[in-house]
Amino acid sequence: MNTLEIIRRKRDGHELTTEEIRHLIRGYTDGTIPDYQMSAWAMAVYFRGMTERETADLTMALVDSGDRVDLSGIPGRKVDKHSTGGVGDTTTLVVAPLVAAVGVPVAKLSGRGLGHTGGTVDKLESFRGFSTELDTTEFIELVNRTGLAVMGQTARLTPADKQLYALRDVTATVDSIPLIASSIMSKKIAAGADAIVLDVKTGDGAFMKREEDAVRLAEAMVSIGKQVGRTTVAVVSDMSQPLGFAVGNALEVKEAMDTLKGAGPADLTELSLQIGARMLVLSGAFHDAQAAREALVRCMQDGSAFAKFREFIVAQSGDPGQLDDPSLLPKAKHEIPLIAESSGFVTEIRAEEVGLAAMRLGAGRMTKADVIDHAVGVVLHRKVGDPVKAGDTLATLHVNQTATLEEVKKRLKEAIVIGERRVEPPTLIRCIVTEDGIIRP
Ligand code: URA
Ligand code: CA
Predict the structure, then answer these.
(1) DSSP-derived secondary structure for 362-398
(2) Which residues lie below 8 Å from residue 170, measured CB to CB, with a gap of 6+?
(3) pLDDT of 247-273, one tens digit each?
(4) Which residues have any ligand 1 atom within 6 Å of their CB?
(5) What pLDDT is recorded for position 153?
(6) Is residue 391 within 8 Å of 346, Cβ to Cβ?
């Protein structure tokens, strides 16, 4: 097959065949197609787009570039959950044990990743001794025994995605919907999912700032799932302000534990119930989302959701003492209040700036080599729409190194906007994209 001809065909707006797409991905990973040809193709895709069929073919070509996790040793349909990423997004820590508490197994691969705070694995490592270094056999045994396990991502999954993503990152071709959609879906499929619930974030702190773009990305991923036999549902949710109150690793773990006990922030609780209910329906355990939701609420109220979390942490060598007494989780040396200078209402909490503040305090990684400080971060005391009086504490900064403190305080103060008139809080659930269309709540 002629690579030059394939690039030219995409440049001119033609639809590529399955074999042409597979040729590109195979050639790129085995080194016979160089970066410059792959970048030209990615740029052609950026301008010309891909059909739904091409996008599904690209997804499966990425999956086939590496290993797949075989979850057939776990009975039933395995449903995975993925978030496109947000600030203070602790949903996985809530949803995974919650769904497992209802009796549906959750086998989760999770990464560390770069960002404002750590990934799910980093957050869980707030527990002393907690380990995600499992081999697949141990992973499956754990899921079958406790209903829930989290395994660290292995390097052998979707190597072509890793290589292509690094290339897109330096050639201004990241923000292409078919390329993003295939990248995300390939990782979920390689991780063994039979069905997938996506949380596609929109707003200031999200990858997709505009709601229309988030919906288009959601539709592209649902279409891939449908074509390759992995039913996918996407919840499009607000990320204009951080989710919940806590942004930071151990701080979010505490928030997740409260939520599992039914005493968490309203938005984190609602989003967890929405995503959890969709997972239960896709697993086949429930026919409708309302009944599924009621089962999840019962598990929060009767203590079984938190009990499942406890069982999971202990099974992966985490310290039970820290579960029983969360004050034993990593704790910062200083707790510094951010004081409101005027009275009125919170009209905006710019999620991205809050995330950057947490990162500057040491909660996240800018490069792979950075070390995360589990203790530090930001805890908000107000959300958009709340009243404020001058002198109130708007947020608490949990700080270990004070070198960056003044700058962080200044920027955080600018990120929390106080106005005279009350504004409506942003709608949390914008819509749910399914194979049968869009549901607006
Ligand atoms: N996240 C991914 O995993 N892939 C993309 O292409 C963009 C965001
Ligand atoms: Ca949070």
Answers:
(1) TSSBSSTTPPP-TT-EEEES--TT-EE-TT-EEEEEE
(2) none
(3) 999 999 999 999 999 999 999 999 999
(4) 165, 179-180, 183-184
(5) 82
(6) no
- What confidence score (pLDDT) does residue 368 get? 82
- Residue 116: the pLDDT is 84
90 CA distance to ligand 2 centroid (A)?
Answer: 5
Rg (CA), the chain: 22
Q: Whose CA is nearest to atom 2 of ligand 1?
A: 184
The residues assigned a catalytic role are 82, 161, 168, 183, 187
What is the rounded CA–CA span in Å between residue 161 and residue 111? 15
Distance CA 177, CA 369 (A): 29
Q: Which helix or strand (DSSP H or E) is residue 183 part of?
A: helix 177-190
Residue identified by tokens 């690579």 is 3
**Which ligand approaches the C-alpha of residue 355 most closely?**
2
Is 270 in contact with 429 (CB distance < 8 Å)? yes
Contact of 146 with 107, CB cutoff 8 Å: no
- What single DSSP character describes residue 326? G
Q: Mean pLDDT throughout 75-95?
A: 95
Q: Could you write out the DSSP letters of every residue in 65-95? A: TSB----TTS-S--EEEEE---TT--HHHHH
Q: Take residue 153 and report the two structure tokens written for it.
A: 């991502």
- Spacing, Cα 157 to ligand 1 middle (Å): 14
Burial of residue 330 (CB within 10 Å: 0-12, 13-18, 19+) is buried
Report the nearest-CA residue for atom 3 of ligand 1: 184
Q: How far is the centre of ligand 2, averaged over its atoms, from the C-alpha of 247 (Å)?
A: 5
- Per-residue model confidence as pLDDT tens digits over 127-172: 999 999 999 999 999 999 999 999 998 779 999 999 999 999 999 9
Tokens (6 digits) for 319? 């310290």
**Closest residue CA from atom 6 of ligand 1:** 180
Closest ligand to C-alpha of residue 254 is: 2
State the chain's maximal CA–CA distance in angstroms: 69
Ligand 1 atom closest to Cα of residue 207: 8
% of the chain at pLDDT higher than 90? 95
